[in-house]
Each structure stands twice: as structure tokens, then as C-alpha cells.
Amino acid sequence: MLHIAEAAKLLGSDMFQTRREFVVGTVRVVDCSASATPAPRRNGYKLIMARPFKPSQVEEFFSRFAQANPRPRSELEYKNPYTLLVAVVLSAQATDKGVNKATAQIFPKIDSPEKMLRFGEGNLRDAIKTIGLYRNKAKNVIALSKALVEKHGGDVPKDREQLEQLPGVGRKTANVVLNVAFGFPTIAVDTHIFRVANRTGLAPGKTPREVEDGLEKIIPDKFKQHAHHWLILHGRYICVARKPNCPSCLVADLCRFQPKTQPAGAAADNERKLIKAVRRVRS
Fold this sequence. Notes:
Elements (H helix, E strand, L loop, with lengths): L3 H8 L3 E4 L2 E4 L2 E5 L13 E5 L5 H14 L12 H10 L5 H8 L9 H7 L1 H7 L6 H19 L7 H5 L6 H10 L10 H10 L7 H11 L2 H17 L32 H13 L1
Antiparallel strand pairs: 1-2, 2-3, 3-4
Helix pairs in contact: 2-12, 3-9, 5-7, 6-7, 10-12
């Protein structure tokens, strides 16, 4: 059971009405207030999830990405595992473009934790002040650099648990480093992957960890190495937050999202449509 507004917040606001039903992302929200059959309800609505992907559909989903982009790569610029780790830490709530602009002035001369410690927190703070939360990020980079020198001989560990013990490093950052720097088939769920997994119906989940576990379960091993990049690039450039570019989507016919967006100029504003639809069903 889920209130319609909660469903919209979780899965995106794109929505349409068919009689007393609404589709929000991959979820059909049914108005129970007019139903003749008693049913569990919450605020007059029940939630019906879209049908799950079949293994053959998951295979086809990732086969198309593999054919279109056989060797995707991170859009963060880095020189080695350490600079990748720093770049990912700096990228929290910031764009890769903004991070690359800042690190372009740092990484040519500072590519190890030892050099970063000599550079110092003050200098680093000044160098990355164009990035959001730069003060806290500078503090974390210096702290993790110190930890790498003292506990790991200056090397970036190839273990998720050890990575997550570093200041400023969470599960997502650890997964990115393991995948990009060391080739592990990990899936780092950021806001783009979270949206794509829920909107398409590929691996719905309320939390990043639920989505990660769902993706790990259904993605064939042969696609796991690059799955993270295919999904993040798809979410960044095609399956965008406010208005996905469905006409240009490689997997539109497999995606559970309804209604598909139309070519430019053909669709009404999604937020306005949601508000009007909710008002109609409550009238």
C-alpha cells in the first residue's frame, strides 16, 4: 500500500490516468475508494508493481548496450587507483565535469597519498573550492590519504570492507573503485542507476542497496563488468530525471515505464499533469 504522492516521489512524477488507475513509473496505482471488493488500502490507494523482467529480457536489455558501447568508461579523469578514489570522493553531489575541471590542476603533480599529504588540506581546499561541500571533502581526502599511508603502505586496497573504512568512502564509492580501477564486477548505485532500475522495472527497490542486490541477482555474469557504466550513462543522457528521452532509448520496448515520452513538443509538462490527475481522482 502506498499513497499516490509517495509513489510519485519514489519513482518519478510522470503519470497518466485510465479510469480510476494511474501509472507512476513502473507502478500502477489504483484508486480503491470506488472498488466494490474490500481490499487492504492506505489513503484509498493500492500499489500494483509492473511485471518483472524475464531472464531473456534482461539478456536482451544488456546485449543492446553491449553492442552499442562495448567498452564504456568512467567520465571521471584519473591517473591511477588513488586519483580515481579521490575523484570519486569529490564527485559526491557534484558533476563529473566539475570534478574534472578541478582535478586537472591537481592530478598532474599530485598522484599519490604521500604527495597529497605534503600538498596539505589548505591548498587542496583552495584547489577544489568550485566543487560543492569542498571544505568537508578536502578534510576527507587528507584523512583518507593519511590512512592509506599508515595502514596500507600508500596503496588503495582491493577490498570493499577496507575501502569503506577510509574517511569519506561509502559503499557506492568503494564499488566504483573496485570496478573501474581493479576490474571487479561490482555495481555502484548512484542516483542515475537508482532511477533507471526503478523506472524501467529492471530492479525496483526503495534503497540503493535494494537496487544493487536486485541488479546483482538478475544481470548475467558476462555483463556485470560494464553494467554499472551502461546504466549510469543511460540515466545521465537518455533516461533523465524530469523527462526521459524515450524516442532515443535502446530498450524502450523492454522498459516498463508508462507512458513513454513523445518526441519534443508532443508531451505536456509532467508535473502539471500529475497534479491535475490527482485532483481528478479525488473529486
